[in-house]
Amino acid sequence: MDFAGAYSWPNLRYLLEGFLVTLEVAALAILLSFVIAIIVAIIRYTKIPVLSQLLFVWVEMIRNLPLLLIIFFVYFALRDVGIKLGVFSAAVVGLTIFESAMISEVVRSGLMSVDKGQIEAARASGLTYGQALRYIILPQALRRMIPPIVSQFISLLKDTSLAIIIALPELMHNGQVIYNTNYSYVIPILLLIALLYFVVNFSLSLIARRLEHSR
What we know:
Number of strands: 0
CATH class: Mainly Alpha
Shape: elongated
Protein name: Amino acid ABC transporter membrane protein 2, PAAT family
Subcellular location: Cell membrane
Helix content: over 70%
Pfam families: BPD_transp_1
GO molecular function, one term: transmembrane transporter activity
Number of domains: 1
Distance between the termini: 48 Å
Family: Belongs to the binding-protein-dependent transport system permease family.
Low-confidence stretches: none
CATH topology: MetI-like fold
Radius of gyration: 21 Å
Structural class: mainly alpha
């Protein structure tokens, strides 16, 4: 094991560049999937005819497919119908599709956990159904969803490593490039990669705990 060589500045810089790509992909996918998940969950919760049934099929289908297959499909299969995405965009789209389906179930469960009698009380006080959902039900549901949603975001961050299949220059990809030049770098580089993932994910866990205790 050559820690000194593995942790030379050029190697560290290259690894950190990959880590930045990992964080960028994860951040975009988290934002997009969360927005889509809320929309999907509300439509299913309110049971809009036809649309809610279609979304049920979509969610169940996506949840039961491997994320690796979805990323592979987005990058390679869509090219056959004229949709050509770069590796960064394909990774974001693939992760967003998968995570939005997963998170939508968390959001829907949170909405269903709120007593429906509160909607009736809100309607009786003069609020519309949409206003009751926005101001009464959704805020309560979101507070209850913090732990599982953060856990899903942590999984998403780790899942960015699967984009190595389409050669996205993220953390695992760049680490592999480094230790392929010298096999004495394998353990030092993998240890550093593990540390970087741990620091970010553990920080998210601490934030989730603090938010949960402050409810």
